Amino acid sequence: MKLEILTQSFSVCKIATLTDADLTGEFCFIARTDEEISLVCPSQAVPANALQVDEGWKAFRVQGVLDFSLIGILAEISGILAKQKISVFAISTYNTDYILTKAESFEKAITALQENGYETTEL
């Protein structure tokens, strides 16, 4: 399986509203529940109304469009990283999965995945 390394640094934010969020960038992930609005965005695009911000995330995505019937992709990737004591923040979209790790663990994560047969390219 191929993974595409994203070159941006990301921040994970808790925001009050979407009014200050820049949704025009190439990457922006939003989740809204009855308890919160979460935003994952490039670090330079953190909105002024962010209530909490956790900076220093790097990301890669599973290349290609994943069929909904596929089983265990995130489990396998997160299992490999868990063995290396690397925590993940996973985001699934309609097409594919994105996995974020803290920047200080990112190279170790990529190396562990390559050692387990994953090919990587930089986006």
How are the SSEs ordered, and which strands pair?
Elements: E1 2-15, E2 29-32, E3 37-42, E4 50-62, H1 73-83, E5 89-92, E6 97-102, H2 103-115, E7 119-122
Parallel strand pairs: 1-7
Antiparallel strand pairs: 1-3, 1-4, 2-3, 4-6, 5-6
Explain what the structure shows.
With 123 residues, the chain is an alpha+beta fold. It has one domain (2-118): VC0802-like, CATH 3.30.2130.10. The chain has two helices and seven strands; from the N terminus they run E-E-E-E-H-E-E-H-E. Strands 1, 2, 3, 4, 5, 6 and 7 form a seven-stranded mixed beta sheet that branches. The longest helix is centred in the last third of the chain and has 13 residues, at 103-115. The protein is globular, with a radius of gyration of 15 Å.
Number of strands: 7
Major β-sheet, in short?
7 strands, mixed
Structural class category: alpha+beta
What would the CATH topology be?
VC0802-like
Q: Any idea what the CATH superfamily is called?
A: VC0802-like
- Taken together, the total number of domains comes to 1
Which regions are unreliable across 5 or more consecutive residues at pLDDT < 50? Answer: none
Distance linking N and C termini? 16 Å
Helix content: 10-25%
- Average pLDDT value? 94
